[in-house]
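Here is the promised in-class demo. Please do not try to memorize the tokens; focus on the logic of going from shape to residues.
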């Protein structure tokens, strides 16, 4: 189901709770909402649709990928950049890393560990910030 995007910074600043298999419907809603906003958005976190759970979805090219309970375990090569957000107006400066290692569960709740680089790594960092209540 396509959900409305949250713009309330107070709600966005709340830390998300861990997701469980019982939250699978939220993954589907988040993927649907990302697809519906694909012209303006390459990633979303569950709090952007009003659900306070550690779930993100990232457009990695062919299909968007869901990452449940993602945690960055390693980050390398910091750089400064500017980002926009579907929940906010305009762009803001931020610090990101060119390469990150992430531990997460996939949509079948199987544990994964993967290294991401470049723009995909930047998107993942932005969405994990959302899970941590950090607003750019």
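The designed amino acids, position by position:
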């Amino acid at each position: 189901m396509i959900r409305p995007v949250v713009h309330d910074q107070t709600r966005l600043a709340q830390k998300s709770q861990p997701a469980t298999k019982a939250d699978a419907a939220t993954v589907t809603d988040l993927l649907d909402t990302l697809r519906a906003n694909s012209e303006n958005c390459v990633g979303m976190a569950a709090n952007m649709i009003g659900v306070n759970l550690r779930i993100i979805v990232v457009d990695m090219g062919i299909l968007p990928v869901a990452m449940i309970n993602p945690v960055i375990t390693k980050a390398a090569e910091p750089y400064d950049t500017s980002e926009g957000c579907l929940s906010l107006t305009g762009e803001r400066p931020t610090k990101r890393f060119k390469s990150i290692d992430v531990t997460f569960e996939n949509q079948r709740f199987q544990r994964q560990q993967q290294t991401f680089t470049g723009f995909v790594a930047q998107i993942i960092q932005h969405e994990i910030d959302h899970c941590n209540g950090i607003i750019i």
